[in-house]
Amino acid sequence: MMDQAEVGAAAEEEACRVLRAEGYLIVARNWRTRFGEIDIVARDGEVLVFVEVKARSSSGYGGAEGAVGRAKQRRIIAAAKAFLAASRCELAARFDVVAVEGNDVRLLRDAFQVDDVWPSS
User: Fold this and answer.
1) Where in the sequence is the domain holding 16, given as residue range(s)?
2) Long-range contacts of residues 18-21, Cβ cutoff 8 Å, at least 24 apart
3) pLDDT tens, 51-63?
C-alpha cells in the first residue's frame, strides 16, 4: 500500500503524462513559495498554465475536483503571482486541475479564475 506522498507523486507523474499528450510543455514541478506550492507549471501554446493535481480513491465527498476549494484556489493564485513575478513572464495565465480518481484521470481546463475567488467590487 502506498502512503499519501507516494500516491501524490504517482498522480503528478500521471498528470504530466496526460498534459504532455495534450501538447503541454512542462516548465516546472513542485514550485514552492511562502504562499504555497504549485504542482505543475506548463505552457499550452502561448498560455502559462498553473496546474493543481488532486488524487482521491473515489468520487465521494466531492471527489478530486471538490478538494480544490476557494482557500486552495487563493493559495494557488498567490503562488502563481509569485511565479510570474520571479520569472518575469508576461504570458496570459490559466488555472487547470488534473483530477485523479483511481484509473480515471480528468483534465479540467480553466478550472477556476482569479475573479471566481476575488470578485471585482
Assistant:
1) 4-117
2) 18/98, 18/105, 18/107, 19/51, 19/98, 19/107
3) 999 887 655 555 5
Name the nearest CA neighbour of 80 among 119, 116, 38, 46.
38
Rounded to two decimals, the pTM is 0.88
pLDDT (tens digit, 9 = 90+) per residue, 20-49? 999 999 999 999 999 889 999 999 999 999
Grid cell listed for 19: 498534459
Among residues 42, 105, 97, 102, the alpha carbon closest in space to that of 72 is found at 97
CATH, residue 82? 3.40.1350.10
Count of CA atoms in the C-beta half-sphere (13 A) of 113: 6
Helices (H), the chain: 4-21, 63-66, 70-87, 114-117
